Amino acid sequence: QVQLMESGGGLVQPGGSLRLSCAASGFAFREYLMTWYRQAPGKERELVARIAAAGGSTNYADSVKGRFTISRDNAKNTVYLQMNSLKPEDTAVYYCHAANSWGQGTQVTVSS
After folding, report:
1. How many C-beta neighbours within 10 Å does residue 47 have?
2. Helices H, strands E: what count in the chain?
């Protein structure tokens, strides 16, 4: 059974940083593309960043380029999202996606 468990969300001031983690189990983690999505209130879920199975290729939404960094540790079956220079518009529930499955999400709120 595929399980994805996000953590690391919280309340942060504009300009601050957070690091999200997604611990995965139940599938061959190192063989799968890993993706972070987010969904703000009243908006559709959108892709934030993804990282290839081999870990060498990454893609980002234009809105987060230069501020967010996705990485993975195949030994720990974990994918990370380092978020810097956070803005109020980054406020959303952040979800991990892989192997046709979703995590439960972690709330990120950027507010002064």
Report:
1. 14
2. 0, 11
pLDDT at residue 8, rounded to an integer: 98
Say how many CA atoms lie within 13 Å of 75 toward its Cβ. Answer: 0
28 burial level (CB within 10 Å; 0-12, 13-18, 19+): exposed
Taking the C-alpha atoms of residue 74 and residue 48, their distance in angstroms, rounded to an integer, is 20
Beta strand segments in the chain, E: 3-7, 10-12, 18-25, 34-39, 46-51, 58-60, 68-73, 78-83, 92-98, 101-102, 106-110
With a cut of 70, say whether residue 55 has pLDDT above it: no
Give the number of other Cβ atoms within 10 Å of residue 44's Cβ. 7
CA distance 8 to 84: 13
Instruction: Give the pLDDT confidence score for residue 56 in this predicted structure.
Output: 72
Decide if pLDDT at 79 tops 70: yes
The pLDDT of residue 31 is above 90: yes
